[in-house]
UniProtKB/TrEMBL annotation:
GO terms for biological process: cartilage development; dorsal/ventral pattern formation; negative regulation of BMP signaling pathway; negative regulation of cell differentiation; osteoblast differentiation. It comes from Salvator merianae. GO terms for cellular component: extracellular space. Disulfide bonds join C143-C180, C166-C217, C172-C219, C195-C204. Homodimer. Its main location: secreted. Residues 1-28 form the signal peptide. Keywords: Chondrogenesis, Developmental protein, Differentiation, Disulfide bond, Secreted, Signal. InterPro entries: Cystine-knot_cytokine, Noggin. It is found in: Secreted. Belongs to the noggin family. The keyword Signal applies. This is Noggin.
Amino acid sequence: LSFSQSMVPPEALLLCSSLAVLLHPGFCQPFLRLRPSPSDNLPVKDIIEHPDPEYDPKQQDLDDRTLRKKLGSHFDPNFMSVAAPAQLNLSAWDPLQRLKGLGPLPSELRKLDLGESPYGTRLKMGKKARRKFLQWLWAYTYCPVLYTWKDLGLRFWPRYIKEGNCFSERSCSFPEGMYCKPAKSVTKTFLRWYCQGWSRQKYCTWISVQYPVISECKCSC
């Protein structure tokens, strides 16, 4: 999620930059950071917000019932929360110790020929040894999506999103060299407090924005 300046004409940006230097540092910041736009880099990096609390929603703008009605069916309690949720315990996750629950072996692993050696000879491997080796390989190359709750700040509603990350503490290939990387994502709709103008001419309201969340990771270069 990044901020787009596409709605601002080039001449307006030039004028704004000049005024910022002459009048006051940060004068044009809210004018240049108006609307979030999608990003190809996942997970989404932290958004640089204008520090002025004048651009925060007031207490009367945070009525839970009104905002739930405005968001409607887009409210997904599995991925968003109004109050700070308890963090998921991800530190104990170890794919090599969790062979159970990974699901069935992928078809590419089931079809893997383990009998051919680099020297052109055939290797003998029993069914039990083959099954255990493939399970180990599946666990070693498995790329889970690890979820943790992220605080988006006061200018998003709901404020908390369950964000996905790919396990990248070690290589997922054998031999090493490949790592778990995002393969697919889903978008969740949030409300964003959106302000235009400044001072007494400032107008703010809640708008709908799309927030991408990693939904699948794969072992790749």
